[in-house]
Specification:
Strand content: under 5%
CATH class of one domain: Mainly Alpha
Helix content: over 70%
Radius of gyration: 44 Å
Order of helices and strands: HHHHH
Largest sheet: none
Distance between the termini: 112 Å
CATH topology of one domain: Annexin V, domain 1
Number of helices: 5
């Protein structure tokens, strides 16, 4: 009876170990399969991210070129405006200070200030001296602000 009991005990122990090994092997295989799937998913996501990165870099390059074109166009416009203002300033310099003062007094302060800044300072001073005091004060304040 004790022999049978020991035999049954060892048989159960052996059977339990066999099932435990099978469960362990099965568990390891399942984990290996999951890891392989996760690795494939990561590779797919990496490819997607690389494609997005190339797209973003392409857009950055495209927009950088566009920005450069816009900056060049603005510079060209500014140069043309400055050229026109220099031409107008020369015309005001050619006038008598009284005539130039009357005409500049009627202009928008911003434009009058730009013209006065381009004119030779001696001639600009004579023109400002011929303007009404209020307008001369406004323009002088505007010129002083630009210098800051």
């Amino acid at each position: 009876m004790i022999k049978t009991l020991f035999f049954t005990f060892f048989l159960l122990l052996f059977t339990f170990n066999a099932f435990a090994e099978e469960d362990l092997v099965s568990l390891i295989e399942n984990q290996r399969t999951e890891l392989t799937q996760k690795e494939e998913d990561i590779k797919k996501e990496t490819k997607k991210l690389d494609a997005l990165k190339k797209d973003v870099e392409g857009n950055i390059e495209k927009y950088t070129k566009l920005l450069q074109q816009i900056e060049k166009a603005l510079k060209d416009v500014e140069e043309k405006e400055n050229k026109r203002l220099k031409h107008v300033a020369k015309a005001y310099e050619a006038m008598s200070p009284e005539d130039a003062a009357v005409r500049l007094s009627q202009l928008d302060n911003e434009i009058a200030i730009k013209i006065l800044l381009i004119m030779k300072s001696k001639k600009a001073g004579l023109v400002i001296g011929m303007m009404p005091a209020e307008k001369a004060g406004q323009l002088t304040k505007g010129i002083a602000k630009i210098g800051k």
